Amino acid sequence: MESESGLSERYEIKGGDFSRAGTISTTIKRILQEIGIPPDIITRTAIAAYEAEMNVVMYADEAVVTLNLTPEAIHININDKGPGIVDIDLAMKEGFSTATAKMREMGFGAGMGLPNIKRNADKFMISSVVGKGTTYDIILYLDGKE
Amino acid sequence: MKRHYFHSIRIDEDKCEGRMKCLRICPTQAIRIRKGKAHILEEKCIDCGECITACPGGAIVPLTDPFGELNKFKHTIAIPSPSLYAQFGREILPNKIVAGLKKLGFNEVFDLAYECGEVSFAIQEYLREYKGVRPVIHNACPTIVRLIQVKYPSLIEHISRINIPRELAAREMKKQKSKELGVDEKDIGAFYITPCPVKMISIRQPAEKKKSNLDGAISISDIYGPLLSAMEGIEKGSYRKGLESICILGIGWAISGGMSRTLRLKNSITVSGLNEILKVFDDIEMGKLKHIDFVEAYSCHQGCVGGSLTVENLYVSHNKILKLMETLEYEQIKACPDIREVRKKYAQRYFLREGRLEPRPLKPLDTNLAQAIKKRKDKEMIYESLPKIDCGVCGSPTCQTFAEDVVTGEADITDCIFTLPEKIKNLPAEVTKALSNVVPMDPTKDQKQTAKHMRGGT
What we know:
The structure holds 2 protein chains of 2 kinds. Chain A is α+β, with helices and mostly antiparallel strands. Chain A has helices spanning 23-35, 39-59, 88-91, 101-105, 113-120, and strands at residues 7-14, 62-69, 73-81, 123-129, 133-141.
């Protein structure tokens, strides 16, 4: 879906790889900085991307992250293979989490991840098939349009 | 609009041999070698001083003030960084150093450790009532402040609003002395004895764009020799006497972690060395460290004792400060400010930093978004065609920065030594034939030998 005026990058993450968690959002942040995206939008993008990345690391087996950047919008698509989410509405509630005790011990799983993505993105779409995986679409607009 | 940034580092072109040590060590990739000489890119430089230490030819010089500047003032005050106390042998105690500075011609020496102590208490107060974004980032190291302005503009809000001790000390001493001696504040010169070049810059061009209360900085390395001679003949005195006016809270400011330790801050972390700081700042930006209250960060390893203008080995001086702190604790020397007084002053906003910190984000690839995106794509394409060994022969520190320099027009793709065999291919046949014995014609083969050969040849 790369257009003439757009930039497209593709990354892969493995579930359970806590040591590399956060590297994709950092990479995305650096690209946006080089291009000169306003700092507040970069921060929001990086936080949303980081939360999604953490979700994959915590729950999924693997995922492909694509960044599509046009002068109009930043679009991050994450496609994971994993258990999927049973009840998305419930998962979107602040404080709800299926994190294990071990994850909580590490400081994760406060149930703020998905709501945090929603708060920072202009548009957030999530769909899931139980037993197959979850797809996240995070969009931030650059031209002031919604 | 082009903003001009003032820097505390100069390159002596006569001495520079283009040996690339600075090119490789610069943490913000602010150095380029052009026509065999190093150049600093103003907007990227954060005055950390790494290049000064790295240069084997002594061609990179810090801009500090010569001693002669003292004559411009009717009354002079030396304000030494606590790291100065760690530069001499064990038997030379702080009081002797202060006496030595006076003998060098300063009318007055203000022990900055005392003011550091006051500010430590002020930071404690600040953190107690703080409601803003966490963690608060310590602002004593001007390189850290500049790094945030340039690379982490979104963290500006995290920077502590408490003023730094050297500025407060200069401000108060000038007020006090002007009253006491009946001279104009303008005629009183306050000089900081500095362990690093960036403090110089923070005096000439404060990050908050306000005028500094200090009038200059003299490097520890410049004053070391004269001070050593001046201290000869000064009575050693008793061990206790040599320490009795020294504030333990303030001494800790010379080393990384010293302040958090003396304040017994529970939720604080300490980080030193720029590459480590980049990792911590990335985490703060991600919101990973919200549960931390305070980050003590120093660009130099081990804190100010590791500054590029110090003399003693930084691990030795780090240890000396630790020992000094232990001794003060053991001897129960309480030369620190009265916390009740500090609270009173705090309530009067005495410690608040004046002026505003603005971001100084790096120039994007292009001001037009569509163009910038295109250039970023071109940059990746160029990067992919490069050998990715960061040899630096082109004059840019890494293949990544070289690719960026090409798309922004700062460099030409043919500056890359590995594109050379391609260029030769396009030469007239007879030249190619004559050269074929010297340079391999296939760019994929023997690249390293080619590079070596060409470097030796020019």
